[in-house]
Structure formats: C-alpha cells, structure tokens
Predict the structure.
Amino acid sequence: MSRTIRLQQLIRLLRHRQEPMPGPELAEALGISLRTLYQEIAVLRAVGIEVVNQPGEGYVLPPEVTLPPLALGEPEGSQHTEGASPEAAPAELVFYTNPLSRGGIVHWMLEELGVNYRLVTLEYGAAMKAPDYLAINPLGKVPAIRHGDSVVTEAAAICAYLADAFPEAGLAPPPAARGDYYRWLFFAAGPLESAIALNDLGVQPTAEQKMRLGCGDYWALVETLAGAVAGRSCIAGDAFSAADVYVGSHIGWGMRFGTLPRRPEFEAYWAGLAERPAQRRCAAFIEQARVTG
Ligand SMILES: N[C@@H](CCC(=O)N[C@@H](CS)C(=O)NCC(=O)O)C(=O)O
C-alpha cells in the first residue's frame, strides 16, 4: 500500500468515528506498526491536518478537517509496503560537542527527541581545529551534527533541522503555524546572542551604533524577550517545541551566568523547562563533566 493511500485510509478511519480511536487499534486496522502510525500522524500534522491525541483515549479528527489531496503526495523513495520490503536502515546521527559548550542545547534537543545518536566529545583547542573536524565545521566550533549525508552547524539550525527530521516527536508546529516558532528561534540566535555577547564584553554602543547594529539595544531585547515568555510555558503556540529548547537554553544559561537578569518572567518560564526529564539528564551530564574536569 502506498503512503498516500495509507494516509487517506487513516483519515477515513478517524472520520467515521465519533469517539477517539486508540493508537494500537488504529495501527492494527491499517496493518502497520505503532511506530509507523506515529510517523504517519506526524506527516498529517506537518501538512496541517491536526489529528488530536486525547491522552489515555486515542486519536480524533476535528469534524471540520478536509484532506488536501496534493499535500499528501508520495515522498520520493517512500513507496514501500510494510512487511513486504525491509525498512531502510536509519541514517547515522553523530553529535559533535563538548559538555561545557553550546552543545548542551543540542544535547537537550536530542534527548527530547529520544532518538539514537553517537556522541563525539571534542576537547577545546587542537581537536576542534584538526582537519577531520574542520571538514565538518570549518569554524572549528561545536556543536555540529552529521545525519546521513547532511551536516548541520549552528545550535539553532540544528534544533530546527532535528525537529523536522524527526516529526514524530512533535517538536515543530505545523508549517502554517510557525510564525512565533521562527520568530523566536531567529531572535535568540541573532540579535539576542549578539547583544548578550557585546554587553558581556562591556561594549556600550552609542545610539547611532545601535541603529546600525542588527541587535540594537540590549535592554530592549531583554524587555522583548520577557514579554514573549510572560505567563507562558511555551514560547510558540501551546506546545513545547524546538524553540523552547533553544530560547529556554539562553534564558537558563543567561540567568545562571549573569548575562541575563533574573526577571520573574524568565524565572517562571525556565522553572517549567528545567523540570523536563530530558533537560535534567543533560544538566546532570554537564555537572558530571564540570566535576570531573
Ligand atoms: N554560533 C555557534 C557558536 C558555536 C560556538 O561558539 N561554540 C564554542 C563553544 S560554546 C566553541 O566551539 N568554541 C571553540 C573555539 O572557537 O575554538 C552556535 O550557535 O552553535
């Protein structure tokens, strides 16, 4: 059965039910594994068909949903029938990092995804500037990932890439609802990072320089960021996403090392994120590295 037909069947099955349909029942009706079902539901969400998961009950389709036929075209190379041909081996995912680096952001993202990856630790200095690593990142900096043939550097780009590469984890909103997601990811990776660095180095741009600098004024950025997270547990929409991993890391780190003020909006937002099991695992990993030197 092609993926398009399977997705249409999945929608049809849900449409004919008033009640939520449990995942295992749905998977059985489609003749696929639960894992494949999660992937197919992620595909539907990625094209804007919001299948709702009612915890403990199963999946339902909002009655107003219509199926966009073209949006469900067969992705290249995906025309396999489960059980009839072997699943392609997953692409190897390699994570280059140093425990005491921005790699912590990507580490958290990987732990949230719950995927298999190979962690390669690089010491600062010669190892990061060796030719084999410069072939991965010509800047000789961590983090970086290699996923199959794709190499991605820049922590924010890696988080966004991983959310798309593993849609079943639901760490990116559907494309049509990505306004805030992109906005705050880029805000934190661009102007916020630059302004924090300048402020930390004691550089005080003049009013005229602030007009030319992409980041503008440090305190205006702090105010804007505080407004974006005030009273919210997630920065983009109602669900935790890669934007929370990235922006949250800046906030948690910034408050810890004094590069951002301990504003109540930041404290409240970070308190919710710091409790996440994936974040706690990464914090323990960093602490271990710090203790053992
Ligand atoms: N813009 C990069 C920054 C990467 C970066 O500066 N990494 C630091 C560690 S946090 C590094 O590898 N420094 C080593 C060096 O420059 O030699 C990102 O967001 O990933």
